[in-house]
């Protein structure tokens, strides 16, 4: 594990942006699975600026959503909608470079990734409960590849989505499991802010356990963890 | 995970020998941790033959013992004695290319490996209880780097060594833990014979759990598992 | 450059076969460009035997012909016909895993390789004139990617083909140039027999020059050269 | 070859700084050969700022000077003096992480690099005459490893140093040759300003020839070229 602690969120975001940029600018097909959400928000803004300042052949990079929550009466699920708004549209990523994971294809997806040449980079945040991608403690098993979790009204996740999204949740979440993520060539985990300090401590220094799903990422030979000082404040 | 099932132990051994040979013959320093024991016995014989048939600069490869059980009144422990007899002497590996892990240096060993450039290859067998290196189910924790396990008369391990070795066990075992092993660039796990079929099934298809330590190896992005048909006979 | 000198052609062939086997058995798409011709003949026989002894998922490997000489009134050119006979048929490689380079697509081929994820392995022989792939000294330029060489009756190459093949040559050769080959992740060059000793000396120890095209291969950071003792007999 | 054209020198420098930073922050020994001179000046300033903002274990990175011109009555030569002033001192790189190439050890240096695990990154500029490291057109041969060029009063190089430095030139230059540089895992070439436009065009689009030494870098499978718009202005 490579650990970088940055002075602040801005520096964290600059470094993250450049890591993504350098993988994006490859001279052969690369497969990138980048997280939606708040942690990479500023990094994606910087990336959008960079794309006005740096010119390279963007056509060889393919983008994957690493999880998805289906939504009723919507073509795209929660993650694809967020990625489209936060990443794909602002950065001008065209449809033919976007590989969509959904409830219809998740069973073949590990195979599809292998046929595409494998994942080159997975950029992730960490949840307050230690989840990465869609691997919540309540249903994580480290031996899962891409898998499906049914969602019903009354479930924690159902309520969360129902409240935070204008759409009604569908019947499931699909997500890359630990097997899928750890098969990638490079992993980057980012976290910022005091509210992440406790779970970062557990994930990086506590036991490796399905109760703190992100703890498993430490075992990958090419993991970079980038934290701001607040998120790192409880580390030894 | 790359899975190769071979017709028999001889083919398994030929492939294993050539994997080691190709890493050994690098044009830059490489760091190899190769197991002692019965599984690689024939592979090492083939390697010894190969070294009479293939000429290359052998000086850049460094060899590491990945575990050690100290022995009373002996300079070298159980593993180093076995490796010397089974690997180092028959293959003519000279002392300056052998990096010895022991009870005196284990605390600095992860650091030492990092300063040496990291491990390029770890070749392992699997125990009937699912152990790899010295990670027995009774004291495995996936977050361990190189660590020490005290041994006392009466312990399972003490009795085992006492019976199988002409020497009296010392006070401890030291071993690469999961963190150390999974940080390597490439892992190879070999197993042969019907007696390994059940544990192979558990390790490769069961849950990833400290109760079957080798199950964690599946999460490495560059693991090759080589089995003969008997060891593979219970796989789906 | 990694140099392995083997006692004889049989050992050279065994090692070559296992290098190809290990790349073939990847758990993600891999792209292999393997030479036709006399040098790898025995290696491919051993590979065919291995495929009866070693079971793995063969579906993720794609095979490329790295040069082609078109033939009049023939669907496939000289190289594809040879590869089909020597490699694809004996090894049971199915059509959907074969990527055909020909006069119709050569202009887009560097792009196609990039979109396929790049070449993982190029296995080559060396000609008595120092050529690799179709890069003959008379028209090699190190800055070429995939390129076309027109052939007319009266040309050296025309005569050679006309004599050695039951077919009439077409109007061109197409071939991976140095740019295409050196962009691959790994290169393997094999040569056996006394008749190769002089050109091997020139290619490995002489100046790097377009007059000895294979001399450029030495600059690749991941080149393995495997020779039998006869081919190596003039090296320092 | 990966080509990135940046809007201006500032963006070029930011990206370059982050490329170096990410290699520097490895969790195993890495070997970095970074150029002195005007092109990376701003990148090193940014790096110095970054080191006040980003905290990581710096101890595993080793720094190499890739050429040296000896100076009369001086312990260090021209390059080491420049690197000390521009890179090592401002960035706080300690002596034990600096590997000095000089006239006394150049003959063993390729071997030393191999024993150190090989070069992970070489960051270079390009001279107006197409030179990279110390490979001037007048004495470049692509088959050279680390080599020595004698210098006498009256030589072009002697005059140049004599004029630009407070010190009197010594008797030689030593430099990584093409063999040494192209054996590295990753190469980065940077150039900025209109005055570099013509040589960049020759090096990237012209023939690969010892008359334009940097033209050979294009053949490396992992070369990144970063230019500002002015330096890129003559490219197709």
From TrEMBL, chains A, B, C, D:
GO biological process: carbohydrate metabolic process; N-acetylglucosamine metabolic process
Residue stretches making up the Glucosamine/galactosamine-6-phosphate isomerase domain: 22-218
Keyword tags: Carbohydrate metabolism
Gene3D superfamilies to which the protein is assigned, alphabetical: 3.40.50.1360
GO molecular function: glucosamine-6-phosphate deaminase activity
Family annotation (InterPro entries): Glc/Gal-6P_isomerase, GlcN6P_deaminase-like, Glucosamine6P_isomerase, Glucosamine6P_isomerase_CS, NagB/RpiA_transferase-like
Protein name per Swiss-Prot or TrEMBL: Glucosamine/galactosamine-6-phosphate isomerase domain-containing protein
Source species: Enterococcus malodoratus ATCC 43197
Taxonomic placement: Bacteria, Bacillati, Bacillota, Bacilli, Lactobacillales
